[in-house]
Design goal:
By secondary structure, the protein is α+β, with helices and mostly antiparallel strands. The protein has a single domain, classed as START domain (Alpha-D-Glucose-1,6-Bisphosphate, Chain A, domain 4). Helix content is 26%, strand content 40%. It has three helices and seven strands. The protein has a seven-stranded antiparallel sheet, covered by helices on one side. A hairpin with a 4-residue loop joins strand 3 and strand 4.
């Protein structure tokens, strides 16, 4: 059985908790502009409710996709895979945000995945070794860019 990888990271961003939630739950046609790592060819909106959504998203490289259920509140977000070519059903990412004194956010992020097949085990192993830096940089940098109006 493949190893389950759990990554915990925390970081600060200039974006407020409300802004973080808004950016991460913008399921409009501009989502792939907000999050350029999402492959527009894989992006599909299935259903959107007031505090949940079901969407398919993926990257070009590596060639991954997942049908995910997003659930959120004012200071938290949970993303869980319902189907995926690279991870198991129920795997996902959980974020909690707290307001910093400067109006930005402190974010606690937990990413947990298990390879859906042996082909994805090297990617998961790499995430186990480098995932904290990859996730921190990807989320913090993009949220800071969006907070700055980029």
């Amino acid at each position: 059985m493949a190893e389950r990888i759990h990554i915990h990271c925390s970081f600060d961003t200039r974006m407020s908790p409300d802004g973080v939630i808004a950016a991460l739950t913008d399921f409009t046609g501009r989502r792939t502009e907000l999050w350029p790592n999402i492959d527009p060819a894989k992006y599909r909106i299935h259903e959107v409710g007031p505090d949940w959504a079901r969407v398919t998203e993926g990257n070009v490289e590596p060639d991954i996709w997942a049908l995910e259920r997003y659930s959120w509140g004012p200071d938290w977000l949970s993303i869980k895979a319902e189907e995926s070519n690279f991870c198991c059903v129920g795997d996902g990412t959980d974020l909690t945000m707290t307001l910093n004194a400067d109006g930005g956010s402190h974010i606690e992020l937990d990413w947990e995945r298990e390879a859906a097949s042996p082909a994805w085990e090297p990617v998961m192993a790499m995430m186990g070794e480098q995932g904290e830096a990859i996730l921190t940089t990807a989320y913090r940098d993009r949220l800071d860019q969006l907070a700055a109006g980029a």
